[in-house]
Specification:
Number of helices: 4
Distance between the termini: 32 Å
Helix content: 10-25%
CATH superfamily: Peptide deformylase
Strand content: 25-35%
Mean pLDDT: 94
CATH topology: Peptide Deformylase
CATH architecture: Alpha-Beta Complex
CATH class: Alpha Beta
Structural class: alpha+beta
Number of domains: 1
């Protein structure tokens, strides 16, 4: 079983390399990503694993997986996108909660564009062009950030009212920025 890496692992801050050919190794990486996502979800009863990027397994290749139904925990199928590229963002900026398997127990209110256009390869090598809005657009932008070594917390660093955690009942509770976020080298190793 592949292990999900977490902050402050420096591999999360590296830019991933393009996949030049879809090989058995790439199919194996995708299968490991799906398995790790579902394993994580099984251990987190209040949460759904919406997506994952290969760097979260310490594999710096430009591959993401996105759950086919972002609202239904019972439907546990994913689509892999290889070498995804943002071709356009548009629409109003919206702020919503984000979390990350690689940033344990921290959530944040992150501003992102409402709409995104992405081109990528599917696992069978066919090129697709996707238009997404709302939560799916946010999910795609979050995962493509991973491929560039960017975490959601980077978008909200310094915003004192943007960091949260889940309580025992699965409700969002604000974190005290000055004591739990500022200077936290697990979250921001460069502050060391």
């Amino acid at each position: 079983m592949e292990k999900i890496i977490t902050t402050p692992d420096p591999r999360l801050r590296e830019r991933s390399s393009k996949v030049s050919k879809i090989t058995d190794e790439i199919h194996d990486i995708i299968a490991a990503m799906v398995s790790a996502s579902l394993d994580w979800e099984n251990k987190h009863p209040y949460e759904l694993s919406a997506a994952m990027a290969a760097p979260q397994l310490g594999i710096n290749k430009r591959i993401i997986i996105v759950r086919d139904d972002l609202a239904d925990k019972e439907k546990a199928t994913f689509t892999a996108l290889i070498n995804p590229e943002i071709t356009k963002t548009e629409g109003r900026l919206e702020t919503d909660y984000e979390g990350c398997l690689s940033v344990p127990e921290i959530y944040g209110l992150v501003e992102r564009p409402h709409k995104v256009k992405v081109k990528a390869l599917l696992e069978d090598g066919h090129e697709v062009r996707l238009k997404a809005n709302g939560y799916l657009a946010r999910t795609l932008l979050h995962e493509i950030d991973h491929l560039n070594g960017i975490l959601f917390i980077d978008h909200i660093k310094g915003k004192k009212d943007a960091f949260f955690h889940l309580d025992d009942k699965g409700n969002m509770q604000p974190l005290d920025y000055d004591t739990e976020v500022a200077g936290n080298t697990n979250l921001f190793p460069e502050d060391d």
